[in-house]
Amino acid sequence: SWKWVLAPIILYVFERILRVWRARQKVVVTKVVMHPARVLELQMQKKGFRMEVGQYIFINCPAISLLEWHPFTLTSAPEEDFFSIHIRAAGDWTERLIDTFQQQKLEMPRIEVDGPFGTASEDVFQYEVAMLVGAGIGVTPFASILKSIWYKFQQSDQTLKTKKIYFYWLCRDTGAFAWFNDLLASLEQKMAESGKADFLTYRLFLTGWD
């Protein structure tokens, strides 16, 4: 019976070693943006990093905890030369991470990244009409999708079958809309300039008031 126990243990140890090796690869934080509603945007670069829309990564900040890892959905597009995440203050670890970056003016805190993992969103490009519905910070996968679709538009990508997108976002406070508003406004302007003003229809719903 010990053979049945040994095999999973070996696989687990191998996975842990692989994660440590991936995490030790250098990550460069190229840009830090503090958005309203305590949302931190980190733009990063890592050698050999490849992503698809809708994927997520695990990040660790040794300055806060050596062992604590947290998952975050990527908000950048595969066509960009960096990868980014948006982090909302929603607990002790995220609060401390945001405070750490706000306090560091000259030297960025070290960030370790494991991933990317999973993707359930890339099939959106295979349909002529797509409806995207997000709530709160859960809108982050759609930032990646909308950016990627726009890049495919610009490059006249023949694999893009999408002709119309309906995007709905529900949020409880007005401040949370601010960080995503720039992307929507930019997409709207560029699509209007290219004669595709009706490609994206979006509605934002405010469900609370502070």
TrEMBL record:
Every FAD-binding FR-type domain range: 13-123
UniProt keyword terms in alphabetical order: Oxidoreductase
Matches recorded under CDD domains: NOX_Duox_like_FAD_NADP
Any single biological process term in GO: superoxide anion generation
Pfam families: FAD_binding_8 (PF08022), NAD_binding_6 (PF08030)
GO molecular function, a single term: superoxide-generating NAD(P)H oxidase activity
A cellular component annotation (GO) from this entry: NADPH oxidase complex
SUPFAM superfamilies: Ferredoxin reductase-like, C-terminal NADP-linked domain, Riboflavin synthase domain-like
Positions of transmembrane segments: none
Protein name: NOX1 oxidase
Top-level taxonomy: Eukaryota, Metazoa, Chordata, Craniata, Vertebrata
